[in-house]
Structure to design on (709 residues):
């Protein structure tokens, strides 16, 4: 963003966000200090997510349980240039006007020295996103999770809406994983291998009963009222992830995932998902809090399944560049694509579609707990007269004590 | 046999990283790692997750830190909520119950000090106020000395075999501290009572120790960006009070502080709040040497 435009926008927003006393004093502001304030741009960092439930805080019933709780609201105002556009469902704003993307109630607490409990309930759709126990003290660097989980497949799927740098999920995510999050009731065991570098091996099993909150775009759920007939109706997942530190400033995270289960496209057939992901981050630690930081994410998924039209291989992926201009400004660019592989049979269902989309978003974070985002999309899919464009204005607020996020 | 070199390579890979050291110590702040090295000598391998030039509120929860915590015998954290934005995520993944809060290998260094500015109630309209009090005690030599006492006890508890060695190193450390501390105080003595404006309230413990007074903060509330309106008001409030210095950490922006200092007739000092924050401050002693040198000025004060 041009520097002048950024300063003007910052000045406007800071005026809007200034406390009443500061506005009242505005006329008496020293002009040199006002210029210096603009020069500092983002000035101080937003406060970190702190727990407000320490002993000094007012103690109520929930606090006495040791629960950290927060409410996170995401609302988007969207406008599309034509009626015929990609509609991803789930958290994505996919129609003209306002979309309540999410109102998430998050709670977490240590149960005892051996377990921790995490809950994420989507109040906007009255849906349980996650509720699971995590072991804290298994031997041999093992860790288990049990409950309703977002599957540990790739980078995007396990991460909640409020951690995204764009207002909508990737096309790949909606098409191969789920509208919201691929996951359900199940268990997971992971092992941090005894090596000098970070290497994590993970296996997961998910129940496919619809009543167990199973969510997937690729795997079939067992119908309500039916029992599992054999273990082949479960979804099995594995992931290997590694991390390569490059001094203080560079970080590289690599992951490979696989998932196998009953195909959603054709009864009594199997489907498989294979995924690769990479996250490269550069953040110069010696440059202060307002230094430029850059992140590059690549994620790819290949799906192998059968459809009524025959065997289908389709795939998709995205590349995303995040540029943290300073503590308050973040620019994200993403190129998205999904398609069938050449030479494979066309299906007649959702498997047959291809799509591409480009997105650019600029986010302003007054503090760590609020976010304003402006995003523009350009996309296309079969059957459309031509590419469509879309613009979104997104607001996110987070109230309460919220846990720290993984890298 | 072809398998022999592979087995040897694997054995090398799987060997403990800290061969020879009895304890693997991971700390959040670099000052605590320096303390562990001073007190533990070659019995300790210490590693800090935060760099001195980094805002300790905002640290990436890198998986390499998960690995370090997984292998650690002892974690030394600052506490008082300073690391709430990133340390819990690492501990959750570390699979090491010893270093979890309450574990034998978890030392909350804030237990050694009397926290300042403990609020009676907290909400976010007050800014980034920590429920346990001001967490920036590591800027004070005296507070770090108290942390050293606590750390000494913990190291002895975890590694009792080298009791004599720890005692000898403690004597050396304490003597050095007493000597240096007296020299620092003597150097700062001419400034007694001097009012100092600060960017963030990171320096209150140091001001107390040095006998200086706080003239106010550029931030209107802790963690809330300074505004020109607030700083103008602060300028008016401090006029005539003899504010000669403005202190801030290396990681905060300086434009507003520079103008404030200029208009207040004061010097802006970018000080090393942690070990390694400035060149030549890679040790506890050199951190405070440099800090005192900057504050005291040359040769007769600022």
């Amino acid at each position: 963003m041009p520097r002048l435009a950024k300063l003007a926008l910052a000045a406007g927003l800071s005026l809007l966000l200034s406390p009443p006393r500061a506005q009242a004093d505005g006329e008496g502001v020293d002009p040199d200090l006002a210029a210096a304030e603009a020069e500092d741009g983002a000035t101080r960092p937003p406060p970190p997510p702190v727990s407000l439930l320490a002993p000094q805080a007012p103690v109520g019933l929930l606090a006495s349980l040791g629960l950290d709780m927060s409410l996170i609201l995401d609302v988007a105002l969207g406008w599309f240039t034509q009626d015929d556009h990609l509609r991803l469902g789930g958290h994505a704003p996919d129609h003209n006007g306002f979309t309540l993307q999410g109102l998430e109630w998050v709670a977490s607490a240590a149960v005892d020295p051996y377990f921790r409990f995490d809950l994420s309930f989507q109040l906007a759709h009255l849906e349980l996103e996650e509720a699971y126990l995590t072991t804290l003290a298994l031997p041999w660097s093992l860790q288990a999770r049990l409950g309703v989980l977002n599957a540990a497949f790739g980078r995007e799927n396990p991460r909640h809406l409020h951690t995204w740098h764009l207002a909508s999920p990737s096309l790949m995510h909606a098409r191969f994983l789920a509208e919201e999050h691929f996951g359900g009731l199940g268990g997971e065991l992971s092992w941090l291998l005894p090596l000098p570098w970070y290497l994590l091996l993970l296996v997961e099993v998910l129940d496919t009963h619809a009543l167990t909150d199973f969510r997937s775009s690729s795997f079939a759920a067992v119908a309500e009222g039916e029992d599992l007939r054999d273990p082949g109706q479960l979804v099995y997942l594995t992931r290997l992830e590694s991390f390569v530190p490059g001094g203080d400033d560079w970080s590289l995270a690599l992951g490979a995932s696989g998932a196998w289960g009953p195909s959603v496209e054709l009864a009594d057939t199997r489907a498989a998902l294979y995924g690769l992901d990479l996250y490269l981050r550069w953040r110069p630690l010696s440059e202060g809090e307002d230094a430029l930081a850059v992140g590059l994410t690549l994620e790819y998924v290949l799906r192998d399944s059968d459809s009524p039209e025959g065997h289908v291989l389709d795939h998709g992926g995205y590349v995303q560049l995040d540029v943290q201009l300073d503590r308050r400004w973040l620019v994200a660019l993403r190129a998205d694509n999904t398609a069938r592989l050449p030479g494979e049979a066309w299906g007649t269902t959702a498997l047959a579609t291809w799509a591409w989309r480009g997105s650019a978003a600029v986010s302003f974070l007054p503090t760590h707990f609020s976010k304003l985002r402006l995003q523009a999309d350009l996309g296309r899919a079969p059957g459309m007269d031509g590419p469509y464009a879309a613009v979104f204005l997104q607001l996110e607020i987070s109230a309460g004590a919220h846990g720290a996020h993984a890298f | 046999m072809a398998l022999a070199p592979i087995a040897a390579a694997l054995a090398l890979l799987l060997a403990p990283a800290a061969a020879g050291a009895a304890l693997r110590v991971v700390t959040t702040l670099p000052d605590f790692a320096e303390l562990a090295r001073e007190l533990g000598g070659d019995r300790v391998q210490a590693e800090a997750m935060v760099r001195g030039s980094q805002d300790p509120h905002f640290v990436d929860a890198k998986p390499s830190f998960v690995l370090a915590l997984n292998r650690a015998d002892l974690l030394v954290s600052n506490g008082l909520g300073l690391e709430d934005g990133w340390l819990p995520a690492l501990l959750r993944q570390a699979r090491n119950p010893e270093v979890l809060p309450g574990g034998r290998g978890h030392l909350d260094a804030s237990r050694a000090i009397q926290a300042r500015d403990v609020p009676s109630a907290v909400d976010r309209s007050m800014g980034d106020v920590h429920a346990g009090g001001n967490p920036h005690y590591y800027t004070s030599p005296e507070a770090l000395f108290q942390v050293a006492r606590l750390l000494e006890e913990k190291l002895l508890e975890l590694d009792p075999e080298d009791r004599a060695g720890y005692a000898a190193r403690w004597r050396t450390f304490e003597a050095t501290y007493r000597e240096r501390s007296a020299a620092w105080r003597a150097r700062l003595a001419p400034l007694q009572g001097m009012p100092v404006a600060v960017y963030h309230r990171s320096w209150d413990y140091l001001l107390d120790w040095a006998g200086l007074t706080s003239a106010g903060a550029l931030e209107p509330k802790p963690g809330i960006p300074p505004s020109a309106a607030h700083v103008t008001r602060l300028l008016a409030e401090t006029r005539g009070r003899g504010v000669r210095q403005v202190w801030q950490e290396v990681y905060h922006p300086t434009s507003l502080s520079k103008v404030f200092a200029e208009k207040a007739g004061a010097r802006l000092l970018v000080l090393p709040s942690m070990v390694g924050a400035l060149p030549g401050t890679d040790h506890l002693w050199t951190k405070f040497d440099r800090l005192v040198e900057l504050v005291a000025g040359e040769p007769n004060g600022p």
